[in-house]
Amino acid sequence: MVKSRFVFEHLPPEVTLYEVGPRDGLQNESRMVPTEDKVRLIDALSETGLRAIEITSFVNPKWIPQLADGGQVSRQILRKPGVTYSALVPNRQGLDAAIAAGMREVAVFMSASETHNKKNVNKTIGQTLAAFRDTVPPALAAGLRVRAYVSTVYGCPYEGAVDPAKALELCRALKALGCYQVSLGDTIGVANPRQTRDVLGRVLAEIPAPEVAVHFHDTRGTALANILVAVEMGITTVDAALGGLGGCPYAPGASGNVSTEDVVYMLEGMGVRTGIDLDRLVDCARLASTLVGHEVPSKYYRAAIGARSRVTGG
Ligand code: HMG
Ligand code: MG
Q: What's the pLDDT tens digit per position in 38-86?
C-alpha cells in the first residue's frame, strides 16, 4: 500500500468565508454598478449563510470611482443579525465616513512591497503605518472592530519577489495597533503551496491562527491548493469573492479572487463546515454576472449553471 504523507488529519471542523466580492470584485469592474443593485446583491449574499461580507470601501472616489457610493450602500443594506459587514478605509477620513454611514467593522490595508504600497495609497510603508496610528485607535475607541490587509505578501507586480519575512513583520505592527485579524494577500496570484507554507509557518509561529486570514487571488490557478495548505496549518478565515470576481486596479495583471463557490465546494466536500448554501451562492454569482455584464470565472458556478440548464433543457 502506498503510504500517504498528506492525510488531511489536521483540517479544522469549521472555516469562516470572508466574502469580499462587493468590494474587491466591484472595484475592478469597468461597469459602474448602480447603488440599488449593489444593495440587492449584498442583501442576497446575507441570505446565503455567509458570516462576513466586505461591502465597499471609503477611499478617494477619484482613485476608485466604482465604490464612490459606499456611504449609500452602507446605509441601504439590510443588516442581518449574525453577519459582520465591513469596509476598507485607508485613513482617518475614510474611517469618519464609514462611522457616519453606520459601519461597525472596518479594514485598513497596506502592502509588503514599497512600490505597490506607493501606487495603491500614495504613501511609503512607514507613512502608511503612521496614518494607521491616527485611524485604528480612534476606530477602536468608537467601538469598531478593525481588520487589516497586507498585500503583495507573495510577490509584487512592480518589484517581483518579496521577502517572506515581511508578512510577520507587518503582522506584528498591525496587531500592536489593535487590529483583530490580519489577512495576508496574494494580490497578483503568484503564490504556490510551498511558499504558502513558508510564509504561514513564520507567521503562525508567533501569531495565533484565528488572528490570521488568507486572501488569494487565483490569477494562475493556485489559490485552492494554497488554501488547502493554509487550512491544514490551522487558518480558519478564508477571503473569497463570489463568482471569482476581483482584482486591484493598482496591481496590473491581477485578476479575480478565488471564487467563494469553489472554496465552499472543496471544503464542504472534505467535511469542513462553512455554513453556506451553495445553491443560493450560485444565484448570487448569477446576479453578479448580470450586474457586471460578463461571465464570471468561478469553476463551480459554471458547472452548476451548466447542470441547471441541462435539467431545464435551457
Ligand atoms: P492622496 O491623494 O495621497 O490623499 O490619496 P491626500 O490625503 O493627499 O488627499 C487628497 C484628496 O483625497 C483630498 O481631496 C482628500 O479629501 C481625498 P481633494 O482636496 O483633492 O478634493 N481623500 C479622500 N476622499 C475620500 N475618502 C478618503 C480620502 N482620503 C483622502 N478616505 C488615498 C491617498 C489613500 C486616499 C488614495 O491613495 C486612495 O484612495 N487609494 C485607494 C486605493 C484602493 O482603494 N485600492 C484598492 C483596494 S486595496 C486591494 O484591493 C488589495 C486587497 O484586496 C488585498 C489584496 O488583494 O492583496 C485589500
Ligand atoms: Mg484583493
A: 999 999 999 999 999 999 999 999 999 999 999 999 999 999 999 999 9
How many other β-carbons are positioned within 10 Å of the β-carbon of residue 166?
18
* CATH number of the domain to which 145 belongs: 3.20.20.70
Domain that holds residue 200: 16-312
- The answer to whether residue 1 is domain-embedded is no
Q: Quick check: is 3 in a domain?
A: no
Rg (CA), the chain: 18
How close is the Cα of 118 to the center of ligand 1, in Å? 11
The answer to whether residue 32 sits within a structural domain is: yes
Kind plus residue range of the DSSP H or E element containing 26: none
Supply the residues annotated as catalytic: 248
| Spatial distance between the Cα atoms of 59 and 57, rounded to a whole number of angstroms | 6
Say how far apart CA 137 and CA 133 lie, in whole Å.
Answer: 7
Pocket residue to mutate for ligand 1, from 19, 20, 59, most atoms within 8 A of Cβ: 59
From the CA of 27, which ligand is nearest? 1
Domain count, the chain: 1
pLDDT score of 55: 98
Collect the ranges in the chain with pLDDT lower than 70: 1-7, 312-314
Is the shortest distance between the CB of 27 and ligand 1 below 6 Å?
yes
Asked if 85 contacts 103 with a C-beta cutoff of 8 angstroms, the reply is yes
Q: Is 223 helix (H, G, I), strand (E, B) or coil?
A: helix
61: in domain = yes
The tens digit of pLDDT for each residue in 105-138 reads: 999 999 999 999 999 999 999 999 999 999 999 9
